[in-house]
TrEMBL record:
<dbReference type="Pfam" id="PF06224">
    <property type="entry name" value="AlkZ-like"/>
</dbReference>
<dbReference type="InterPro" id="IPR009351">
    <property type="entry name" value="AlkZ-like"/>
</dbReference>
<protein>
    <submittedName>
        <fullName>Winged helix DNA-binding domain-containing protein</fullName>
    </submittedName>
</protein>
<keyword id="KW-0238">DNA-binding</keyword>
<dbReference type="GO" id="GO:0003677">
    <property type="term" value="F:DNA binding"/>
</dbReference>
Length: 386
């Protein structure tokens, strides 16, 4: 069975909710459709979700993140922050977040030993218990507020010694992130707008225990359902796991091999080898780090290699992209006066331009007075706002 590039683009349009016919009513539907919303940049969760909602609004995302807490953020796959549904969170925690937390804890202890005084594994564990007790008493609090209850959080480490970006980092900022990866605390509504990086923390009840192997299989099953076909290399890159872990998870879900354009081997779930119907022509304006552009390691079927330098920073972070029928055809940005500006890399025709203009109007409409600057800025985004 061959699944060509056209079929892969059709699948992306339908399964990643990019074609208007598939737009969702609730943000939880969006998060599950893309497996997890990238959350390293606070704006990405909102922009990615609203690009796929029938009625886009920041309030809908706030509802899920902070009112109902049906969407939670976890430092997980590839040591990246993802927002996933509460039902999926136990699997992500067992499959990735706990492993990340263990590595982060070991790294923190190493840094404390090198760049701070009086720290040991026992003191770190004692500090964690004190933080959780303080949070239980307060209900929610910022890292700075917790520092009043647990003074150890205010201690600092000198990081990247001797390098141009040498800086002091508080123990508290690292420790709260650890506790979140372990599933003990969660981020609450930011102090300020939905773009703010200043937020309090709150304790959370433990998630149900899921065996690690079962959890990894479920993560891969969901990825194949949304992003398949993909290669073994795609799955390894997206999860950040070892090749052995990836192969075992693929075997556990019974992944089926198919041929991709050019003869490469791809994988899909059993029963998913057949064609899908082409959606109606569609355009999308997706933010930096959107799951669609960051979903695969091999991107040539939807992104021309020559366009990569304009759309990605040097660390491999994607900037805002313009899509037409499953291909990245340009980029966009928002200027200081609120205008959404965009540029196409090729002539895609009048229908495509009209569709892009409609998405620009839609985006500007729900953003209103909000101004968005990507956390990871790319050459084209900087050029467009200049």
């Amino acid at each position: 069975m061959v699944i060509d590039d056209g079929q892969r683009r059709a699948r992306a349009g339908r399964r990643l909710l990019l074609a208007p016919a598939g737009w969702a009513a609730r943000v939880e539907e969006v998060a599950d459709a893309v497996v997890g919303l990238h959350a390293s940049d606070p704006a990405t969760v909102y922009l990615s979700a609203c690009a796929r909602l029938r009625e886009p609004s920041a309030a809908e995302v706030d509802r899920a993140l902070y009112d109902e807490v049906s969407l939670v953020k976890l430092l997980s796959m590839r040591r990246t922050l993802f927002a996933v549904t509460d039902a999926f969170a136990p699997y992500v925690s067992a499959a990735a977040a706990r492993q990340i937390a263990a590595k982060e804890r070991a790294t923190l202890l190493k840094h404390l030993a090198e760049f701070a005084e009086g720290w040991s594994p026992e003191r770190l564990a004692e500090t964690e218990r004190a933080v959780l007790a303080a949070l239980a008493a307060r209900g929610e609090a910022t890292t700075a507020e917790l520092g009043a209850d647990v003074p150890a959080l205010r201690e600092t480490m000198l990081m990247s010694v001797g390098k141009p970006y040498e800086a002091k980092q508080s123990v508290g900022s690292r420790l709260l992130r650890l506790l979140a990866s372990d599933g003990h605390v969660r981020r609450c509504r930011p102090r300020g707008s939905w773009l703010s990086n200043s937020y309090p923390w709150a304790p959370v009840a433990p998630w149900p225990e899921v065996p690690v192997r079962e959890a990894k299989a479920e993560v891969v099953r969901r990825w194949l359902a949304s992003y398949g076909p993909g290669t073994v290399e795609d799955v390894k890159w997206w999860t950040g796991w070892t090749l052995g872990e990836v192969r075992r998870a693929l075997a556990d879900v019974g992944a089926v091999e198919v041929a991709l354009a050019g003869g490469a081997a791809g994988l899909v779930l059993p029963g998913d080898e057949g064609p899908v119907a082409e959606p109606e022509p569609w355009a999308a304006l997706l933010p930096g780090l959107d799951p669609a552009v960051m979903g695969w390691r091999g991107r040539d079927w939807y992104l021309r290699p020559r366009d990569v330098p304009a759309l990605f920073d040097r660390a491999g972070n994607a900037g805002p992209t313009v899509w037409w029928c499953g291909r990245v055809v340009g980029g966009w940005a928002q200027r200081a006066d609120g205008e959404v500006v965009w540029r196409l890399f090729e002539d895609v025709g009048a229908e495509a331009r009209a569709a892009v203009e409609a998405r620009v109007e839609r985006l500007a409409g729900w953003l209103g007075a909000v101004r968005v600057t990507p956390r990871f800025r790319t050459p084209l985004e900087r050029e467009l706002v200049a």
